[in-house]
Amino acid sequence: CRLVLGAEATRNASRLKSVTAAHLAATHGALRFLAGTSVLRAARAELSPLVVTHARRDAWEKEVNKTARDLDVHCAEIRLKLVAIMRERCDARCAEITGEGECSFRTAETEADASWPRRSENFFAETAEAVTRELGTIGRVVGEHLEKQDADEVFLKIAAVFDAGLGAALESAVSAEGSEAEKKTRGAAAAAAAAEALARLTARDAREAAPALARLGATGGTDVTE
């Protein structure tokens, strides 16, 4: 687990070029299998009677319990790492939207600078599509390997990250566009699309999964549904 979380596996395994969310999710599934299924229970039930003295049996069972707790800790660390990966993706999207990233675009403050790249008409739609695709990928990967309770925990934290980050970035970008109603509508539509993607990820109503994005989406006349 430490190899995966610390990315040391990329140095110790020649065929593993990077540690992805899929690797983390698969590792989580394997650890949960050891901790939550019959493996440890079987070890305790089958091996404990073979320990002759009571003191040694107590020591053995304490060691088994410690192993179970360690596995739970490792699983919790992996879930946090999965959320951290998506936080980095969200931060990158927000930087593009607000004009602070490598793919930044012209806003009202930089309108006088002819060298500044103009925001394309499809920018908001393309951003929403990219966010939806990324959320769909993490949803599929996590859903395949994590138990429902663990997956729900990850999804809700990811939703909170994207709702706060994208909500603020889109609201700032829409305000910076000036008074052009069409641009504001496109920004609101992107917010609504992101809210719907988070609703699918968390299996909740969009207003519950992403209240800030849903609220911004509604300002553009977009009906945000489940």
Structure description:
The chain is mostly helical and 226 residues long. α7 runs antiparallel to α8 and α7 runs parallel beside α10. The longest helix has 45 residues. The chain starts with a helix and ends in a 7-residue tail after the last helix.
Detail the topology: elements first, then pairings.
Elements: H1 2-5, H2 9-12, H3 21-36, H4 38-47, H5 54-98, H6 123-145, H7 148-176, H8 181-202, H9 206-209, H10 211-219
State the main characteristics:
mainly alpha; disordered C terminus; single chain; 226 residues; elongated
Short précis:
The chain is mostly helical. It has helices at 2-5, 9-12, 21-36, 38-47, 54-98, 123-145, 148-176, 181-202, 206-209, 211-219.
Helix content: over 70%
| Structure annotation, total helices | 10
**Beta-strand percentage?**
under 5%
Q: Ends: how far apart?
A: 37 Å
Order of helices and strands: HHHHHHHHHH
Low-confidence stretches: 102-117, 221-226
Largest sheet: none
Give the integer mean of the pLDDT values: 79
Q: Based on helices, strands and strand pairing, what is the structural class?
A: mainly alpha
Q: What would the principal axes of the Cα set say about the shape?
A: elongated
Give the number of DSSP strands: 0
